[in-house]
Specification:
about 550 residues; alpha/beta; 7-stranded mixed sheet; 7-stranded antiparallel sheet; globular; binds 6-O-phosphono-alpha-D-glucopyranose; binds zinc ion; phosphoprotein; metal-binding; EC 5.4.2.2; isomerase; phosphoglucomutase (alpha-D-glucose-1,6-bisphosphate-dependent)
Length: about 550
């Protein structure tokens, strides 16, 4: 019989989950009892643990398999009834969200640092999702953190051995109690769900071509992350694409040394391929499969805010929304406001929430939100409670197949109707945390001082007054919880915005993000380069934030 042991431990400092779970360097997680402490703290906040079911999986990065093993042992020691685990520990973040909902489990544990590089010298992460399938809300993560600071022991079944390489069910008896581990096909449930959501036969005809229509040629890039097995099954086995339409589809522990983040900087490789090849469409996903980047022919880039707005205006062609109806829309505060115009036009509710997918969950659970997105390359809907990269690519293909329009035509049609929200994000990475905090507090003082609102500044040679300046706060309309200090926001009379925020997902130092947005109405010049359109805003942003002084940099390290 397998026995539970209670092992004494001492708390670690800093097990505070950030925007998206606990993220640190691998070597931090390798410290004695570091993982055990955190997993036990997650379990401690769940009152209905006895006999419950949890979903467990990760993005395939270094340490996932070892931590899955630790989770099995600690869950067994804490009276959990069943674990549903992806084969070899692999599950994309959206797939975990779906499995939690489908199996009505208490929650799930996701092992990922998302788009951060992997491997022994890079990042690892542990994230807890609750029974609605979404990232644990602040109340829960704060409790997990509190437990991590007072933990004295954890419970473990050290001798349990469980093979996660083979699909199947293993039953254990732990001191008279049943404990079940079910290893599942990582892809199947997710694939079945996508087939319910989208019109697969229509997309298949698009990708295979027909007598009078050339094949629509796609290039899908998994960036050596977890989506590899998903895209093979979905695009090749189901939708008639070939292996030539896919790249980097074998999940690797170090993501092949790349930064698995689908944007113009880190997925530049895909951009080049799409540009030189005869491709009509390109898409890339991040390490854990929740982010996406969409490209058209010639590698025409669709900003995440435009992607959100365009999908919003075409949702009615997607079977899932034909069934559920279209409720409201939402975006995070720094995301360009393109979708706001669609919402207004369609008479739908529109929400502006802080950065972080967790803020969308309550609105979805209350049936007020169908589609949402963030500038950080996240797009998703209420089909689950995470953003969903593969879903976004399928949504675009469904719209393209239905409308007969190319990516470029869809963009042009959109801008001609609604105008264009030019947008860029400038990141100043690996800065000192202290000076970045100083930057933010000085800036807050400057912009909230009397006279700043109303002050006039030149934007593209035209004087513009600041009409609002604040540190964004949000009250959740459903549970009335409040999130403060979510980014400093400056709004000008012509609708332009500059936003400053410190990243919440880094594993060391600080990253300052400066978000720049300028709106051009449909009768204005909607064909400028983003750089040119935003140039004067960039100058103002550097000046207001005294960015050079505090970061030591006069240029961003990354522009997305
Ligand atoms: C994760 C979350 C997103 C969020 C992003 C922000 O990816 O899932 O919802 O937009 O982090 O990251 P940042 O580094 O800007 O805090
Ligand atoms: Zn991710």
């Amino acid at each position: 019989m397998l026995k539970v042991e209670e092992i004494e431990t001492v708390p670690y400092e800093g097990q505070q989950p950030g925007t998206s779970g606990l993220r640190k360097k691998v070597k931090v997680f390798l410290q004695k009892n570091y993982v055990e402490n955190f997993i036990q703290s997650i379990l401690n906040v769940n009152e209905e643990l006895e006999g419950c079911t949890l979903v467990v999986g990760g993005d395939g990065r270094y340490l996932v398999k070892e931590v899955v093993d630790t989770i099995i042992k600690i869950c067994a020691g804490n009276g959990v009834g069943k674990l549903i685990i992806g084969q070899n520990g692999l599950l994309s973040t959206p797939a975990v969200s779906h499995l939690i909902r489908k199996n009505e489990t208490l929650g799930g544990i996701i092992l990922t640092a998302s788009h951060n590089p992997g491997g022994v010298d890079n990042d690892f992460g542990i994230k807890f999702n609750t029974s609605n399938g979404g990232p644990a809300p602040d109340g829960v993560t704060n409790e997990i953190y509190r437990h991590s600071t007072i933990i004295k022991s954890y419970k473990i079944v050290p001798n349990i051995k469980c093979d996660i390489t083979t699909i199947g069910i293993t039953r254990f008896k732990i001191e008279e109690k049943d404990f079940v581990v079910e290893v599942i096909d990582s892809v199947k449930d997710y694939l079945d769900y996508m087939k319910e959501i989208f019109n697969f036969p229509l997309i298949k005809t698009l990708l295979e071509g027909s007598d009078d229509k050339k094949k629509f040629n796609i290039l899908i890039d998994s960036m050596n992350g977890v989506t590899g097995p998903y895209v093979k099954r979905i695009f090749v086995d189901e939708l008639g694409a070939t292996e030539n339409n896919l790249r980097r589809v074998v999940p690797m522990e170090d993501f092949g040394g790349i930064h698995p983040d689908p944007n113009l900087t880190y997925a530049e490789d895909l951009v080049k391929e799409v540009r030189k090849g005869d491709y009509d469409f390109g898409a890339a996903f991040d390490g854990d499969g929740d982010r996406n980047m969409i490209l058209g022919r010639g590698a025409m880039f669709v900003t995440p805010a435009d992607s959100l707005a365009i999908l919003a205006s075409w949702l009615h062609v997607i079977p899932y929304f034909q069934r559920t109806g279209v409720k409201g829309f939402a975006r995070s505060m720094p995301t360009a406001a393109a979708v706001d115009r669609v919402a207004k036009d369609m008479g739908k509710e529109m929400f502006e929430v802080p950065t972080g997918w967790k803020y969308f969950g309550n609105l979805m659970d209350a049936d007020r939100l169908s589609l949402c997105g963030e500038e950080s390359f996240g797009t998703g809907s209420d089909h689950i409670r995470e953003k969903d990269g593969v879903w976004a690519a399928l949504a675009w293909l469904n719209v393209i197949a239905h409308s007969g329009l190319s990516v470029k035509e869809l963009l042009m049609k959109h801008w001609r109707k609604y105008g264009r929200n030019y947008f860029a994000r400038h990141d100043f990475e690996e800065c000192s945390l202290d000076s970045c905090r100083q930057l933010m507090s000085d800036l807050e003082r400057t912009v909230t001082a009397e006279g700043f609102v109303g002050s006039k500044h030149y934007i593209q040679d035209v004087e513009n007054a600041v009409v609002a300046a604040d540190n964004f706060s949000y009250m959740d309309p459903i549970d009335r919880s409040v999130a403060l200090n979510q980014g400093i926001r400056l709004v000008f009379e012509n609708g332009s915005r500059i936003i400053y925020r410190l990243s919440g997902t880094g594993s060391q130092g600080a990253t300052l993000r400066v978000y720049l947005e300028a709106y051009t109405p449909c009768d204005g010049d909607i064909h400028m380069s983003t750089e040119e359109r935003l140039e004067s805003l960039v100058t103002l942003a550097m000046r207001f934030g005294r960015v050079r002084k505090y970061t030591g940099r006069d240029k961003p390290t990354v522009i997305t």
